[in-house]
Design a protein that fits this description.
Chains A, B: It comes from Maribacter cobaltidurans. Chains A, B: InterPro entries: cNMP-bd_dom (IPR000595), cNMP-bd_dom_sf (IPR018490), RmlC-like_jellyroll (IPR014710). The structure is a homodimer of 192-residue chains. Chain A is an alpha+beta fold. Chain A has a domain of 108 residues: Jelly Rolls. Chain A contains nine helices and eight strands. Chain A is globular and about 55 Å long. Chains A and B meet through α3 and α5 of A and α3 and α5 of B. The structure holds a DNA duplex (30 and 30 nucleotides).
Chain lengths: 192, 192
DNA sequence: AAGAAGTATTGCCCTAGAGCAACACTTTGA
DNA sequence: TCAAAGTGTTGCTCTAGGGCAATACTTCTT
């Protein structure tokens, strides 16, 4: 198997039983793309018509508040899927930007091909369901965090459950993920 | 068709094409239950093993923050599905309570039966996908609201997109949904 | 019909976190 | 290799929203 697809295959294998031969038949729908640091894959106000699997590096999904603050929704590291789901699903202009935080290598599948696989390959149907369920669960957890926890508690939560976000990314990015300013983040770190 | 299932049938019909005869075959998995005002359907720390369709009334899904504040995640009005999805999916104790806000009438399907239908009836598979997608979209929107908008802006957003929440429910409930205190909500209303 | 319990409003004061400015430190790029 | 741009820290001040207490108003309950 082409090296490029090893991580995707392993990912699918972890989620469900995929037939190796079947995988070899459809994996060509995923096209390799390398991204420079800070390269933008999707600009907001553009309709998102692809889904992304990260082989290497890290993507960031963010938008802008009414006052122009950057709000980060999600970081996709190696072995994760990511897309502007709302735009992908509704085919309306995305309010999100997708940007490579580091030099990255990704596999991109078009919306049409992706939903074709979801419809025709039961394992991919299951994987998509899993993606949606997990995305829903983490997003819900995040809502509860914002609704009921202080910035310090959100930071502690992040340290416990997603420490790589803290170790691998700049303060500025972490702050925009936590919904606080870099000043506050800097101060909070001294309170840990 | 039994009156009790008319709303569910219409709901499915709106989402996809369901075969009436097939529907009559599987609708008996959904059991009718009537709930008194304030009756609790699921207590937190209990594993949720059912999915709910609301025929009449309104359910509230909420949990408690570390300091004991009530945090409301979702209100399910007529013709909506609702469950403690995180618990249902992972079969771990729920951190949510489900409570009838008003006298309500609901259809309940067990987890096993539900996933059985998802697996065997393509239309239900599609409906479940739709439920997950929509739940994800609104939850994501909510994260962005909390992350980047003021309480006043969140209130305005609510008035625009979910006005029935404001008109039909008490201030206290609305406040716990917006992540603010009833005091603040009361004050904000004068600023509109 | 009357007391009890819950809900809404408002005044007062307090706190978490924002915003700005200054400075030190890194990284980047020609 | 050296300027330029970005990043992190910290002092000072400000503001949105929280918390409490008092009062008015509803709504349950019996």
């Amino acid at each position: 198997m082409n090296d490029v697809y090893v991580k995707l295959y392993d990912y699918l294998q972890r989620k469900t039983q995929v037939e190796k031969n079947a995988f070899l038949d459809y994996c060509h729908y995923f096209k390799l793309k390398t991204l420079k640091r800070n390269e933008v894959l999707l600009h907001q106000n553009t309709v998102c018509n692809f889904n992304i699997f990260v082989n290497k590096g890290c993507l960031r999904f963010y938008s802008y508040s009414d006052e122009g603050k950057e709000l980060t929704r999600y970081f996709a590291f190696e072995n994760k899927f990511g897309t502007s789901l709302t735009s992908l699903i509704n085919q309306e202009p995305s309010n999100e930007n997708i940007q490579a935080v580091e030099k990255s290598e990704v596999l991109i599948i078009s919306r049409n091909d992706f939903y074709h696989l979801v419809k025709t390959i039961p394992e991919i149907n299951l994987v998509y369901r899993d993606i949606l369920e997990m995305a829903y669960i983490t997003t819900t957890k995040r809502v509860y965090n914002f609704q009921g926890e202080s910035a310090l508690d959100r930071l502690k939560w992040l340290m416990k459950y997603q420490p790589f976000i803290l170790t691998r990314l700049s303060n500025k990015m972490v702050a925009s993920y936590l919904g606080i300013t870099p000043y506050t983040l800097s101060r909070l770190k001294t309170e840990l």
